[in-house]
Amino acid sequence: MDDLVSLCKRRGFIFQSGEIYGGMQGMYDYGPLGVELKNNLKQAWWNAMVYENDNIEGLDAAILTNPTILKYSGHEDTFTDPMVDCKSCKQRFRLDQVPEHCKKEDLTEPRQFNLMFKTNVGPIEDGSSFGYLRPETAQSIFTNFKNVVDSSSKSLPFGIAQIGKAFRNEITPRNFIFRVREFEQMELEFFVEPGTDEDWHKKWVQKRLDWWEDQGIPIKSIELYDVPKDELAHYSKGTIDVMYKFPHGLEELEGIANRTDFDLGSHTKNQDELNISANVVENKSSNTRLAIQNIETKEWVVPYVIEPSAGVDRGVLAIMNEAYNVETLGEGKERTVLKLMPHLSPVKAAVIPLKKNNEELVKIASSLKSRLQKLNLGRIILENTGNIGKGYRRHDEIGTPLCITIDFDSIEDNTATLRDRDTMNQERMEIDKIPEYLIKVVNGL
Ligand code: GAP
User: Fold this and answer.
1) Whose CA is nearest to atom 25 of ligand 1?
2) How far is the CA of 62 from the centre of ligand 1 (A)?
């Protein structure tokens, strides 16, 4: 973990938020390379969910949330952690995370602590008008269920996908970006006919494992945890946690839950006219029926929901951990290389003129950079430092799959040297063939 944290700061992936004022616990900022990696990961998820499935639609809803939503979702009452104070070190801990140095007799009785951030909405600060920063992206998917069904004519099974910020006032944020107070989720709510839910649950677990493998996380680094009944969240009939071997231990990367008809059943009007199986609180506030009509029987059905819910930040940490390699090169030398899947790499290619500021070389290099940039594969960098060895080392460390060197032969024969990050092999290629080659490299073809 220390090596990763140090690389992240040194190379501009992730910084502590507000560091110049001493930072703030549980908050991190993504730097120039981190934002690229994170965007690439989110795009890969969006491609796999929304673009590859015609029965999945996207959504980008508000973060500030009407408290009524979080009342009926159960978050106001149940989104809590038991917390204790240590009278000796004067710190507050989650009951299951009390450090060894705190003596049992110094701890207060556990108290429930709600993890949601509450904020004032509008100009009056007397607490009469407030909202929550959403603790998960899921709820706005449920409250928009009818809007999406009506506007996109969907029938079961279908899904709504959303990526966005979520906020939790974690008592003890820790392990770098693993447990933070502001993070991003990639959530799919997949609505199915009751009775088909268990099959769909199994299918989504497999699909999600395949996807993580495509992002560079092999199955050997993952364990599935079938959450026991007494540990399930209040909405879940069954949850499979995808556990990853993080540097600090085996922990949850993604949860895949069978939420039954709890959520739509909790937020719908006319609950007693619908055959809701989950144990829901009576709702007298909703003005919308959250159900779907069976075309043949004309009966209204409250769909069951399968929810794969992944953390973007935990994804970034797991992917960087898998990609991080220190290789010995002989003669006592070594290199640090980030073997990211090329579609996730923050920089797709570096174009390096052999001699700094040489007019002819820089002209060829910048023309190639512009051509490659227009392919829309991601960031291409012109590295006009004149130090090829240093350029290779830097790009190995940030995971750039391809370095392209423009030398004096390039002026004569319009070729360049391509250097592969993983094998360090070098080959000569016609400059006009490089765009097509890079497309193949980035797309893993
Ligand atoms: N809608 C269901 C839900 O939010 P969750 O298990 O509480 O379920 C889903 O969260 C995912 O969000 C987790 O698997 C994790 O990847 C991520 N996550 C949750 N809390 C987090 C935190 N404090 N910091 C970073 N990621 C977090």
Assistant:
1) 179
2) 18
